[in-house]
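Question:
Now give any protein.
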Amino acid sequence: MSRYGQYCPITRSLEILGDRWTLLIVRDLLVGARRFNEIARGLPGMSRAILSKRLDQLQRAGLVRRTDDGYEPTQACQELMPIIFGLAEWGARWAFGKPREDELDPTVLMWWIRGGIDPEPFGDRRVVLQVVLPEGRRTRFWFVIDPHDVSLCFNDPGHEVDLLLESDLGVLYQVWEGVFELRSALREGLVRLTGQRDLVLVFPEALKFSPVAPYVRRALARPIDA
């Protein structure tokens, strides 16, 4: 923990939250990540040793508590929600743009999408969604969507594919983040979705998108004054 040597609540806050990765760990806890491996998968650029250290620091600071299943945010952590998403709103308006190559990790996006799929619109049936990307370290992913669970598979799970989604990785990231509206991307051919007609029609209802998507959409709809 860095010390700034100033008696100020802002510096005290930064002493807890200012280290690299800490705010992203808090972000993921606030949107539902609970297990160590779940947090690690969403932040692959951080070593597991650093994650363990940061979680320990947050626990000592009273922002995180250990549970039988992993970690959960305390009230102090929950009260960071407007600050974290205030950063999302500011960033969407003043610091966002086209994705950079170093930001396009397909595995991270698939983990995020897994958390954003709601099985309820598909009813009581199992649905297998395959995602195919044209290039990258890994180009094929499968989601097995059961009524009460969504699994991400990196190898063919052996079930018949019900839906096939094809997209450039950068485009799919921008759909997830709210830059492109999914239905518009489908109409314009930026994203291709094929399969059983009833499932194709319901898929936009099942994909809930990133928690920051509303801020991105609002920023895009609000022109920046010259």
